[in-house]
Amino acid sequence: MNALFLAPVLFAFTMVMVIPFFLGIYYSMTDFNGVRTDLTFVGLKNYETMFSDPLFLHSFLVTVEYTVINVIFVNVVAFALSLMVTSNLKGRNFLRAGFFVPNLIGGIVLGYIWQFVFNNVITQTAASLGLNFLTKSLISNKDTVIWAMSLVNVWQYAGYIMMIYVAAIQGIPANLMEAASVDGANYWTRLTKILIPMMASSFTITTFLTLTNSFKQFDLNMSLTNGGPAGMYMMKAVKTSELLALNIYNTAITKNMWGDGQARAVIFFIVLVCISLVQVAINKRKEVEM
Amino acid sequence: MQATTAATSSRPVSMRRKVLNWVKVIFAFLLFLLFMVPFILVVMNSAKTAQEISLSPVTAPSNWGQLITNVVNVINNPNFSYFSAFLDSAIITVSSLAVIVLCSSMAAWILVRNKTWWSTLIFMTLVASMVVPFQVVMLPLVQWLRIAGDFIGIKLNGTYGGIILCYLGFGCAMSVFIFHGFIKGIPLELEEAADIDGCSRAATFFRIVLPLLQPTAVTVLILNGIWIWNDYLLPLLVLGSSGQVQTLPLAVSMFAGSYIKQWDLILTSTLLTMLPVIILFLFAQRYIIKGMVEGSIK
């Protein structure tokens, strides 16, 4: 009886998570190319070549940059929106739903829509208004492409994070804020001394979500820029907006270097686990201080 | 009530407050409009010809009838089989959700009601697996499904069965976790009473426990449903970009890849892809927002 009820979940979980996970560690030490079945064991060679490949190192740095930008801006925008839609405002439920909508659409579809916005709408509008600095598309300029991608991510994700903040704000007893108000605390004092400390645990969640979400970004990256435009890094041609997830995919699938791709995926996993553990630990300590 | 508002609004302080309130409302709705701009652009440009778009992407279309023409063009385009992709997406999403809800709740119930070393081990393994990003298992998964499929004689790559198995495997950890949290709160006396009345263990679950799980099941359905419907990378790897079974995200990306810069066609195809989700959201807005927020907090 027990075994029967557990069987479907355990079977599927073992088939798609457990076995591939350990198989992946093995593949990362072989010269697997996705087709051949006679694999040669190469030890840690794939890990060594990865760290001397400018494409990978560049992807790594860009992903860190993209993640930092997004953790800051998604949370700031989402927090501001949540303050707005919890204040005594007409049509606030309508607004909440509206800000949430982009989050329901898949990254692939949004990528194509924003490609149109960046390449056609903004450039043409800028040209007709005589704004010369905007006539070059923001996603074909290597200095702005990461910011353009972040803008789309903030637009897509802020509404979701906003709803988490809204839930936290609504969980704060109303009489607490009223009492402070009666005691003469102004809006800023109430915000920094009561609201934000009371919401501390939700900041841990939202930071974790935005951090892992941007670090793992793939769909949007693929359909919006597909890694472009080209740039130079360590004297080698690189794709300036190719994030780690896309780099792993391109290494394995496009270049048929599955062993190398898998080694990158293992490092990707280790880094992701480390930074999320550090982040949660730091936030938890801050929660206590507050 | 009215008398008091009239009396207070005559005072200059609340007059200022009223103006401030209106400024706030106007600002909020302008911000809202800004958020909606990409969607407005999609709708507007889906009703234009390619020439009109290249002339100006921001003006209103001269003839809204063009929208129908574009939709018909896209639907009849041999490179974008909208209805079959929609049907495949629906079949995959609905069957995966049914399997996930049923199997995860069964497993969660066993794990809650048996406090032994193996139930703790299974539960902890599931929870730990939630931090594993898909990229780590995706390549070996494709290869393993090939090997396992050959071995058991059932094709797992490119079939409904294969991808539904994947969605159960990747979706069960979070779903078991959410059900686990809820089942812990169900009083054991309820099940003991059923037992005394002669209910078998399985019948106790299906008749007593499962109906109680309804609100939690909604959360699980929404969290998994939005993910599965929009998922791109797993179908790309397991179904392939030119296989028999195609989901909507796969179909759109193939279509956009073969008609680069033909925005009248691409934007219309994105509009057709977004429409089902937006319509569902309009009807089930409250549940969707609640489900997604609760799922993330747990």
Pick out its properties:
heterodimer; A: 290 residues; mainly alpha; MetI-like fold; two-stranded antiparallel ribbon; 12 helices; 72% helix; B: 298 residues; 2 domains
Q: Give helix and strand order of chain A, one letter per element, not per position.
A: HHHHHHHHHHEEHH
Count of structural domains of chain B: 2
- Kindly provide the name of the CATH class of chain A: Mainly Alpha
Radius of gyration of chain B: 26 Å
What CATH calls the topology of the largest domain in chain B is MetI-like fold
At the fold tier of CATH, the topology name of chain A is: MetI-like fold
Strand percent estimate of chain B: under 5%
Strand order of the largest sheet of chain A: 1-2
Largest sheet of chain A: 2 strands, antiparallel
SS content category of chain B: mainly alpha
Number of distinct beta strands of chain A:
2
Beta strand % of chain A:
under 5%
Write the H/E string of chain B, N to C.
Answer: HHHHHHHHHHHHHH
The largest interface is: A-B, 86 and 84 residues
Query: What structural class results from the helix and strand content of chain A?
Result: mainly alpha
CATH architecture call of chain A: Orthogonal Bundle
Question: Which geometry of chain A do the CA atoms define?
Answer: globular
Residue share in helix of chain A: over 70%
How many H/I helices of chain A?
Answer: 12
Describe the structure.
The complex is a heterodimer of chains A (290) and B (298). With 290 residues, chain A is mainly α. Chain A has one domain: MetI-like fold. Helices cover 72% and strands 3% of the residues of chain A. A two-stranded antiparallel sheet of chain A has the order 1-2. In chain A, helix 3 packs antiparallel against helix 9 (200-215) and helix 9 runs antiparallel to helix 12 (258-289). Chain B has 298 residues and is mainly α. Chain B folds into 2 domains: 2-76, no CATH class; 82-297, MetI-like fold. Chain B is built from 14 helices and no strands. Chain B is globular and about 75 Å long. Residues 1-10 of chain B have low confidence and may be disordered. At the A-B interface, helix 1, helix 3, helix 4, helix 5 and helix 6 of A face helix 2, helix 5, helix 6, helix 7 and helix 8 of B.
